[in-house]
Amino acid sequence: MKIDKLNKKYLTRAHTVLGLIAIFLFYISTYFGTITIFKPYIQAWELPSTHFSSDAEFEQIIDLKLYQIVRENKLNVKNIEIELPSFKDERLKISSQNQNSVYLNPYTKEILDLNNEYPTISTLFNKLHTGANIPYIGLTLMGVASSIMLFLMISGLILYLVKSKKTNENHNKNFRFKWHKNFGIILTPYVIIFALTGAFLGLMLSTSSVYALSNTNFEKQSIRALVGPIIFKQKALLEDKNKRVKPLQLSKLEEIAQKNYPELKIRKINIYNYRLENSQTVFSGYLKNNRALSSSRINPLSITLDSKTGEVLEKKELEDTHMIKKTLSTFYWLHFQTDEPLLIRIIFFILGIVMLICLLFGYLLWAEKKLSSDYGYYEILNRFSIALLLGIIPASAILMILHWLIPFSMFDRIIWIEGLFYVSWSFYLFYSFKETSIKKIFKMIFLSSSILFMLTFLLHEIHTDILLFELFSSNLTKQFVIDLLLIILACLFYFLYKRVESFSYLEKFERRSDV
Amino acid sequence: MFNIKKILLLLFFISTSLIGHKIPGMTLTSKLIDENKIEIKGFNKRSQKLLDGNKIKLFSQVNNRVLFEGYLNKGFLETKIPKEPYMIFMYVGEQDVVIEGLAPKSGYEGIYASKTNRAFKYTLGLSLLFVFTTIFLISKNLLKQRKAKL
Predict the structure, then answer these.
(1) Mean of pLDDT values over A229-242
(2) What DSSP state is assigned to residue A373?
(3) What is the mean pLDDT of residues A107-113?
């Protein structure tokens, strides 16, 4: 591929400048996004009520208990929702719209005592990932950053393909430049998937009100209110009936549903007018052979049965759903990996880490070049980057520690946790400017991360009162693996802490006495 | 002039997305109906539709004890005011609604400090302290460097 020399220069410049603008936001988004890929598993780890052994066989349906639960919790019989246990949440959830939820252990059928527990870690990580922590403009900002990322990917690709005439340039031949380029190429599909869908979610959805306003003569602001009734049409509630009728057993109904719709993987059961004359039962979920188009989050497919006779009333198939819904479903599936099992998540997790390293190398390439010019300003930016890009690791460990330290019963718990997370993050900012030696800052960050990850692991064990190998022997695999990972992380950071001294590369960035 | 136009356009986009993103959800209000009785009302903010059957809990602000538990009946629930500051929780699916409870007309017996915005104030104060100290350190350094150059 050939390109004008001047154009190439401009392209390189644009790549650098836009990269510098986007790197901080996109790094944070990637960091927390990479962790939230494992959201279902983190939730299992952070909620003590999900710590039950799962080795017993279970029949999923809980007929006998259902009636009792509905009565005791005053659930609205118009629409009772049963969420079946899956890898996302091993508990069985019974709720009615806008009302209380009851969680059951699906193996023993006992009602779980939640004690005000709340998935703080995954909620806050997700919030930081989307930028929702910055009020009003956060989501849009993240969307802009993802759009810039797409430009960086395309311009990087062009620059990679352009053959450099001066092949013996020395300063461009270093390790970081080589791997920034190579990682960039490897990551192209990854960036297309996540930055494209992320830009759509962040930028288009958050500015959609402009289109809504212009199409309704400034009457409606929310595009969701306009298109929702068409795309996400909800099943209307059934009319009231007084006559009570005993329905068929749920397990029997499920059998009929599965027989009539064998490709459907049932995730949810909705019972309308429970135990009344005209009761209907809806089984919904995703298609086993087409998870992308029918993801259970956006485009669930369903089969409706008469609860009394088991007769099939309605069968919603993929062909019946709206085109836009299918597209949206694909977008959401690509970004959230809905219903996908562990293997794909691990692959994307590794790619996420590669992405972080690629971004870091990109920043370092720029920072190295600027070392020889006006020093004061660039030093500020370097230290700021250390605090932001590396300080985020111990700060997120502190968030996890606080989740276990602050009692679940405290009403303003989540504000404390989020607030103290920012306090610790700004402390690292403060420390990286207070400490003169860059090496010492690195040492402090690595050592504190190591200690904090170890503490996170210990606090989890103490709080739930199960020790590491007991977790393993009682089949709590998810919790065991996460605890093990925390120990490994702690060791890794301790190792890095020991190695900082011999890392001569950092000396370039030290504050010089001659200026 | 061009720049001002640009900025205005940007502000317009930001403000519209701001309006578009307020999703009115479920809310909770309480009002005094007697010396020491309150009426709690739960409803959908947009459609003003009353909630029914949702669980309500009163928590003590002093030690997070559960003071009272009950269910909304056709949107309303009457209860006695506890003897200490409290919060009202309403359970709505995944997102719970929480507000600070009203004090009785004659006030509480004993002195209690309000804890409503405490967490926010303390953590914001601490983070700002660190950020401002950092800015102070930066400017000090810059001044030193400039002096050295001169």
Answers:
(1) 76
(2) S
(3) 82
- pTM of structure: 0.87
Which option is the CATH number for B24-115: 2.60.40.10, 3.40.50.720, 2.40.160.60, 2.60.40.1930?
2.60.40.1930
The two three-digit tokens of residue A57, written as one number = 């066989």
Q: What is the Cα gyration radius of chain B?
A: 24
* Interior/surface letters A243-256, b for 16+ CB within 10 angstroms, e for the rest: eeeebbebeebbeb
Report the distance separating Cα A325 and Cα A302, nearest Å: 15
CA distance A262 to B23: 38
- Are residues A136 and B20, on separate chains, in Cβ contact within 8 Å? no
Q: What is the mean pLDDT of chain A?
A: 86
Task: Enumerate the residues of chain B whose CB falls inside 8 A of the CB of residue A99.
Answer: 51, 53-54, 91-93
Region label for A491, one of left (φ > 0), alpha (ψ between -120 and 50) or beta (otherwise):
alpha
* Per-residue pLDDT at A200 exceeds 80: yes
Nearest to A196 by CA among A204, A185, A186: A204
Q: Determine the angle formed by the axes of helices A5-36 and A138-161, rounding to 10 degrees.
A: 130
Choose the weakest-confidence range: A32-46, A108-122, A394-408, A433-447. Answer: A108-122
DSSP code at position A292: T
Place of tokens 């970004």: A335
> A424-438, A488-502, B50-64, B103-117: which has the minimum mean pLDDT?
B103-117
Nearest to B10 by CA among A185, A260, A212, A141: A141
Q: How far is B64 from chain A (nearest CA, A)?
A: 6
Cross-chain residue pair B98–A98, CB shorter than 8 Å: no
8 Å CB contact of A429 and B59: no
The pLDDT of B53-74, averaged and rounded, is: 83
Q: What is the Cα–Cα distance from A17 to A326, expressed in whole angstroms?
A: 37
Q: What is the mean pLDDT of residues A77-84?
A: 87
**A158, amino acid identity:** I
Q: What's the gap in Å between the CA of A290 and the closest CA on chain B?
A: 28
Contact A270, A79 (CB under 8 A): yes
Residues 366-405 of A with CB under 8 A from B: 375-376, 380
For B110-136, what is the HEC assignment?
CCCCCCCCHHHHHHHHHHHHHHHHHHH
